[in-house]
Write a structure and sequence with these properties.
Layout: H1 38-54, H2 68-72, E1 83-85, E2 104-109, H3 116-128, E3 137-141, H4 143-153, H5 158-166, H6 179-184, H7 192-201, H8 204-215, E4 219-226, E5 231-236, H9 237-243, H10 246-259, E6 269-275, E7 278-286, H11 298-302, E8 313-322, H12 334-363, E9 367-373, H13 387-402
Parallel strand pairs: 2-3, 2-8, 3-4, 8-9
Antiparallel strand pairs: 1-5, 4-5, 4-7, 6-7
Helix pairs in contact: 3-4, 3-5, 3-13, 7-10, 8-9, 9-10
Length: 412
Amino acid sequence: MPRQICRRPYEYDRPPPTMPYPSSSTDMSAPSQGWTRPIGARLGGVLVLTCSLALGACTSLPRTPYTAAEASTSRVLDIDGLRRYADEPVTKFSFEKDNSTATKTYLALSGGGADGAYGVGVLNGWTASRTRPTFSVVSGVSTGGLIAPFAFLGSQYDDTLKEVYTSGIAESLLKDPSIMRVLFGSGLFGNTRLRELVARYVGPEIMAQVARENAKGRKLLVVTTDLDTQRTAIWDMGKIAAVGTAEALKLFRDVMAASASIPLVFPPIIIDAEGQGRRFQEMHVDGGVTAPVLTLPEALLFQGSRLPGNTKMDIYILVNKKIERNFELVSNSTIDVASRSLSSITQSQTRSIIFSTYDFAKRNRLGFHLSYIARDYPAAPSEGFDTAYMRALYQYGYDKAASGQAWISTLP
């Protein structure tokens, strides 16, 4: 008798229900009592691991097969150039000849989950100091990918970012965990709330504003990880916005959601593509899986290349996490060892990119500016999006930037 294959539709293919959001005036200073406690996260990890091993035959969802050759020529919305890959040759990236004396400004926003509250605080404090520039280029990864469009559009969206990261809305993303989603899907929490959060704040007007700024030559880039090819996808959000259709708005939102879709926590985002005359679906997850922060293409950072032309640029790297190594007595348990190991990998990747960018900036006589959470800043009392912690971290970032102490020009 043939073995039955368990199948269930993708969680994100269903129409999302309406989700109530707490207002910014709601008192949410108390720590979350749900799955966000550390013990809940550890138990969840054990359950996910156990159930995945025991029922692996029932966890695979059907997909349309496609080949590496088709992936290498794929495009989205039947338009070329909506995204590039970080490992492509320098010649694939367009660098405009710049004969002006004006200095361009590039803001690179890293991943960091709830620690994105730090970056939002820095941006708002920077506005308060009256020294915040209009960025020529903004890139974002993971939580930075959610912040990036609003940072790109300027200080008029400071209050929007503050609401997202301090009102308690983010805390709702990790409610109602379900092992069934893991067994018959690919994410502990589903992505309905993440999609609703993006859709609530990113509509046609935001896309139209991004398109207008793109027409002026400014660039907005959001990073995802293409799991099928294991490559870092750099999406040109301004070019997507310029398409101006309902399909473009959906893609714009999907890219933002994908950039923040932490594997196992949230399901991947499936993006329709076409290659060599065949249509298929790509699987994209958190950009931080392959690139914790995006500064420049890999060919420039790691192959000794120089920036074309005579571009003058100040690079600002806003890291939404701690990057200095610290001592911690790790519990000898599977989940704690795995968690500490993954954290160490991400920290090392981030430091590598920062050090490479610093070296590149010195070779090309570019300005280098770095901001990150200090090693001695108190750790979050719980896993997930703890509102009280995020509010305090926001204020910490705000105060540093408002007093002109957020940025350093040396390595940590």
